[in-house]
UniProtKB/TrEMBL annotation:
<feature type="signal peptide">
    <location>
        <begin position="1"/>
        <end position="24"/>
    </location>
</feature>
<keyword id="KW-0719">Serine esterase</keyword>
<dbReference type="InterPro" id="IPR051299">
    <property type="entry name" value="AB_hydrolase_lip/est"/>
</dbReference>
<dbReference type="GO" id="GO:0030600">
    <property type="term" value="F:feruloyl esterase activity"/>
</dbReference>
<dbReference type="GO" id="GO:0006629">
    <property type="term" value="P:lipid metabolic process"/>
</dbReference>
<feature type="domain" description="Fungal lipase-type">
    <location>
        <begin position="118"/>
        <end position="270"/>
    </location>
</feature>
<dbReference type="InterPro" id="IPR002921">
    <property type="entry name" value="Fungal_lipase-type"/>
</dbReference>
<dbReference type="InterPro" id="IPR029058">
    <property type="entry name" value="AB_hydrolase_fold"/>
</dbReference>
<keyword id="KW-0378">Hydrolase</keyword>
<keyword id="KW-0732">Signal</keyword>
<protein>
    <recommendedName>
        <fullName>feruloyl esterase</fullName>
        <ecNumber>3.1.1.73</ecNumber>
    </recommendedName>
</protein>
<dbReference type="Pfam" id="PF01764">
    <property type="entry name" value="Lipase_3"/>
</dbReference>
<comment type="similarity">
    <text>Belongs to the AB hydrolase superfamily. FaeA family.</text>
</comment>
Length: 404
């Protein structure tokens, strides 16, 4: 078996981030390149789609309340619940903090909101576990039958395989989710089916959505920061099932939203045989907030004008950047919480000084950040990977840490 240099490199980085106390590694995020010659004219999304995706970011952010402060009926939580009019909670699930962790909720969206059955898949709180999970072995993908659990009636997916952890996460909750949706569809036959997921939850949403599409349920799937789910054969299969190969992005039923500098859509690695599927919508602005001019459609699964452009780039390293943080697990959550997307840089720096007085010492990192390409920039798990219209993963009042 041939082991690529990138595979060994990522393994080394995973090992070091678990064992090394990285006190002040400061990283300068790469700005997005907005070269007009490299942007296909007229491919910016509409304001209507922008508003819809922004609402879905709030909807999936609420899933991060599960396992912490919780979501209560009819639809109450510490996050954005009261902003979503006409929502009714049906069910929640949480399989536990393991490698195949799956967590989320199912809700109804009644008027004045659009009539929908919504399934929201949360990402993971455990970044080290997520990194290990992304290195798990793949397994053969056999589509579920639309009518039952045999594969006799399902379209064949020849030589397809998917990430084992993602598939296990879907299998753990599959029966509960499908039964709940089936009952809701019987009760509300005129309600559309909407799936949304962030991070690892995006991968589970992709697998769930594929099965629901095969069942004829016609879901609209939106993911934020979705990792690569399977190999080229699976990607081609998903593109066919959702009719993404047509090239008419305005009828897409699967929107894979990515953000500049987010490393997660670039893993698992292409060297391991994984690829991205079509349906990409790309945000090319680094910092919140975004406008409709910052978001555009992409072509295929590897558009060089979108997240794939970062595949081979390197990053820059500065020992005095205000973007530094400690990768040791004990400080991860505190540092994310100290950086509200609504705070000024001065406020963020003041928070960091109080939370991490050692930052002023500017000691040297033990990791060679300067040679890392974007797909290995694991610190962006706390920034670009969470910044999708809002900063995802923070179950706080109104989703706003600044209190404004």
């Amino acid at each position: 078996m041939t082991v690529s240099l990138d595979s060994l490199f990522l393994t080394l980085i995973i090992f070091l981030t678990r064992l090394c106390s990285v006190s002040t590694a400061h990283v300068v995020p790469l700005e997005a390149s907005k070269d007009p010659e490299n942007i296909t004219p007229g491919r910016q999304i509409s304001q209507e789609l922008f508003d819809s995706i922004e609402e879905l970011a709030h909807i999936v952010d609420i899933a991060y309340c599960i396992g912490t402060t919780g979501i209560r009926k009819p639809f109450q939580c510490l996050s954005h619940c009261d902003e979503l009019k006409g929502f009714e909670l049906i069910n929640t699930w949480h399989t536990g903090p393991f490698l195949s962790d799956s967590c989320g909720y199912i809700a109804l969206s009644h008027p004045p909101s659009p009539k929908r059955i919504i399934v929201a898949f949360r990402g993971t709180y455990s970044i080290p576990n997520a990194i290990v999970d992304l290195s798990m072995y793949p397994q053969e993908y056999i589509p579920f039958s639309p009518g039952n659990d045999t594969d006799g009636d399902a379209p064949k997916c020849e030589d397809c395989w998917v990430h084992l952890g993602f598939m296990n996460a879907w299998r753990l909750t599959r029966a509960t989710i499908l039964d709940t949706i089936s009952a809701a569809r019987d009760q509300y036959p005129d309600y559309a089916l909407t799936l949304v997921g962030h991070s690892l939850g995006g991968a589970v949403a992709a697998l769930a959505g594929t099965e629901m599409q095969l069942r004829g349920w016609e879901p609209v799937v939106t993911t934020f920061g979705e990792p690569r789910v399977g190999n080229k054969a699976f990607v081609d299969y998903l593109d066919t099932v959702f009719r993404l190969e047509s090239g008419n992005e305005r009828v897409w039923k699967f929107r894979r939203v990515t953000h500049v500098n987010d490393p997660v859509p670039l893993i698992p690695l292409t060297e391991w045989g994984y690829e991205m599927h079509s349906g990409e919508i790309y945000i090319d602005r680094v910092e919140l907030p975004f406008s409709v001019d910052d978001v555009r459609y992409c072509q295929g699964g590897s558009d060089p004008n979108c997240i794939s452009d970062a595949e081979g780039k390197s990053t820059t390293f500065s020992p005095y950047s205000s973007q530094g943080f400690d990768l040791s697990e004990s400080n991860m959550e505190q540092q994310v919480l100290s950086r509200s997307p609504h705070q000024s840089k001065d406020q963020q720096q003041e928070n960091e000084k109080g939370a991490f007085p050692y930052l002023e010492s500017q000691s040297t990192s033990c990791l060679p950040w300067g040679i890392l390409p974007p797909r290995f920039r694991l610190w962006e798990l706390f920034y670009s990977h969470r910044d999708y219209f809002i900063r995802l993963g923070l179950c706080v009042p109104k989703g706003d840490l600044s209190g404004g």
